[in-house]
Design goal:
Oligomer: single chain
Strand content: 15-25%
Shape: extended
Number of helices: 5
Distance between the termini: 68 Å
């Protein structure tokens, strides 16, 4: 009985972890920033953190060790083989095959929330500003509708504003988008991609066998 309770508790913990949300945050304000968060952990994706320079990494002993590693890698490295056109074409076909199978299920696995989209439209000419303002407003509307159709879910827009600045001279954009899913959906997508990969290789193998010339 105790063993059954322990097993059920472990399964419950695993199921809870699989259903917990994974969040991908993408923001733009002068620079693009992207980060991935799960529970209390946060992993910056872009831009990558610059490595800190530590004086102890440049000691005489460590410099010699790095030199030995480089020499060993250079002596043991095999010459890289260039891919043929057939191999490159096969890789492209494989990627397209996986994309075709996963595409329909990829976007519905995510919930998209536009936390902030602030656009200030400005040019040196008032007439051009008015025209550009109409284009930007329509583009934002199309963007939200496209996200809604791709995901099949309503796209929340917390703060979406487009303002025409007839006194300014430069257009600016501030964007913050949050994509959320869970580990279970990610695993389902990975399983679908792996299945598509195996099917492609099975089909290619069957073609190769049938194309081999037979001599009587």
């Amino acid at each position: 009985m105790l063993a059954l309770i322990i097993v059920l508790c472990v399964l419950l913990v695993i199921l809870t972890l699989l259903l917990l949300p994974i969040r991908l945050s993408v923001s733009y304000q002068d620079d693009v920033k992207a980060s991935l968060s799960f529970l209390f952990l946060r992993f910056p994706l872009y831009p990558k953190k610059e490595k800190r320079i530590r004086p102890r990494d440049y000691s005489k002993k460590k410099l010699k060790k790095r030199k030995r590693k480089r020499q060993a890698a250079a002596s043991g490295a095999a010459p890289k083989k260039k891919k043929t056109a057939t191999q490159s074409l096969r890789t492209v076909r494989l990627l397209l095959h996986i994309f075709k199978d996963v595409y329909q299920h990829f976007f519905p696995a995510f919930r998209i929330r536009v936390c902030r989209l602030n656009a200030v439209v400005a040019t040196t000419d008032a007439a051009s500003t008015a025209i550009l303002y109409g284009v930007v407003c329509q583009s934002v509307s199309y963007l939200l509708e496209a996200l809604h159709r791709m995901t099949g879910k309503s796209v929340k827009g917390d703060e979406v504003t487009v303002v025409a600045d007839f006194l300014g001279e430069k257009t600016s954009l501030s964007l913050d988008i949050l994509l959320s899913t869970n580990l279970l959906r990610v695993l389902c997508l990975a399983l679908r991609a792996a299945t598509s990969f195996l099917k492609f290789h099975k089909t290619e193998k069957a073609k190769t066998i049938t194309e081999v010339p037979r001599y009587e």
